[in-house]
Known about the structure:
- The chain is of the alpha+beta class and 133 residues long.
- The protein folds into 2 domains: 1-31; 32-132, no CATH class.
- Helix content is 30%, strand content 19%.
- It has 4 helices and 8 strands; from the N terminus they run E-E-H-H-H-E-E-E-E-E-E-H.
- The longest helix is centred in the first third of the chain and has 16 residues, at 9-24.
Amino acid sequence: MLRVSGLRVRTVACAALAALALASCGQQDGGGSAEEQRDAEASSSPAGEEAPAGTPDCSEVWQEGAAIPRAYKGCADEAGAYVERDVLGCSSGQRMVRYADRFWGVLGGTVNEAQGSLDEDRDYQTSMRNCSA
């Protein structure tokens, strides 16, 4: 059997595969910081369940020009169902949140409203490029 520095090639290959598997553990949607992963785990109510007491109404949070609370975790829709925040970590460390394919902004920042869907809005696309830069 072939030997590389006293180790069998098979052992080296297994160790490499194990390291690769461990490197991908805990990542979701292409990665994310430990803080983002903790935030995701802290949201215990899956979307669609009744919103916990004290959860703000989505219509109150998501108004163009309003401030997005830094501690925003989600909101209650018209039916009282809990809508978890849709968050994207930016390279700057900020976290961009989106709602209803129409609103976006960074936590602690201002709500922006798209003209149409987010995918078609130029201002949103610019924000996305700046976020990932």
